[in-house]
Amino acid sequence: MPADLPRLKPSAGKRAATGIVHLGLGAFYRAHGAIYIAEAMEKSGGDWGIAGVSLVRPDQRDALAPQGFAYTAVELGPDGEIPRVISVINNVLVAREDPDAVLSQMADPKVKIVTLTVTEKGYCHEPATGKLNRQHPDILHDLENPAKPVSAIGFLTRALERRYKAGLRPFTVLCCDNLPDNGKVVRGVVLEFAGLIDAGLADWIASQGAFPSTMVDRIVPATKPEDIERLSEKTGVLDQSPVMHEPFRQWVVEDHFVDGERPDFASVGVQLVSEVAPFENMKLRCLNGTHSSLAYLGYLSGYETISETIADPAFSRFCQHLWTNEIIPCLTPPEGVKLSDYADALLKRYQNPAIRHRTWQIAMDGSQKLPQRILGTIRDNLAAGRRPEGLILAVAAWMRYVGGVDEKGQAIDVRDPLAARLKALSDGADTPEAKVAAFLSVSEVFDAGLAAHETFRIGLVDAYRGLTTRGAKAMVEVTGS
Ligand code: CS2
Questions:
Q1: Residue nearest to atom 5 of ligand 1 (CA)
Q2: Which residues of 30-69 are buried (b: 16+ CB within 10 A; e: fewer)?
Q3: pTM for the whole thing?
Q4: Of 273, 293, 308, which one is at a domain's C-terminal end?
Q5: Same domain (yes/no): 91, 145
Q6: How confident is the model at residue 12 (pLDDT cuts 50, 70, 90)?
């Protein structure tokens, strides 16, 4: 690492005061929401500086603090890389080290919005029902320890409680995770949690709070050490935490904020709408649904990245088959959008060879992702009397993947909150029938109706058997043709 280079510095000029707290400061938000917010302030001003919060690890704070919390966002386009310094983050707090500092920051009257990217599992809900998981260890902890929450839901509710008790207005909670009706989901779990503490607080949040739903989109692969090296060679300064992203971006936001207070989003291309659901379904099912399908099947076929996977003609045919025959027929397009054009554009985004987005990265947390990305589409097809072979194959590939052994007999490093249970279920069953039955019993993933659906179960058994006897690539070839 070129440690002798000077460290990146924030751009000159006055910093805006903090008006936004962000929970879960990962690469995605720094390459998406934070950039829109920085641009909105460049256009129209406003005190929308961001205090970032890492819930557990200090890495981001430690990497960003020596460079004044500035970082480089690198656009990976077909004509090369375009770096740009973003100086919108004022501070980074680490919740595990000092939960009170985080609660105080969130309760500051100048803070109007709390944005979140805590990933699907961070909502402590049951993906199949959307309800709070009251047995979740972090939720049990946060009910017992009002001053020291550990979960995002605990922080949101306890900070809102401080504001309620201080006679302040609530902040708007702006969820930026890939969940359908994401605003409603957070609102639901926060209200459930608040109701367990104080019914008055729950009523106040329900009547005064705002939880707009959003659709977020930009492909942001994890930054690799070689990215840091290449960037410092190019710029002559060292940035320990740049973010790499594709040129495309989209943010659709339900325009419902406490007292209407928000950055001038419209000026920078954020689509402010009254109904996000059609955009969210389109994106979750067309993009994330095929992303996860390519991730499991691509990984099992030995491909490291999405661009490598999609460069294989069998996979690109398979992906187009998913869009045309299984996903798009179940969707209602947002006004003015032609879904076949949307899918064509996605194919080009996946083909961008500059984006090295690992199949292994996307394969993470499948138990939290499958319901909204794939299972809803499968359910809709079954209801219409169709058997969606391609998506069923993708679910079978997930079952094979979380079994923990690849086609060459090598161990897979499965990252999933249910990893141990899924592996035990797989190990405890020895035929495709028994494996599928064991996985279908995981009620957090498969609701009772889907788990009991004969066509689905038989399709999974056939696909699982095919994966073990013929391999993922052969199954993709026959299914997509
Ligand atoms: C990906 C998403 O990691 C994943 O599961 O499917 O992060 C995807 O890249 C983004 O949602 C694109 O907007």
A1: 362
A2: bbbbbbbbbbbbeeeebebbbbbbbbeeeebbebbeebbb
A3: 0.96
A4: 273
A5: yes
A6: confident
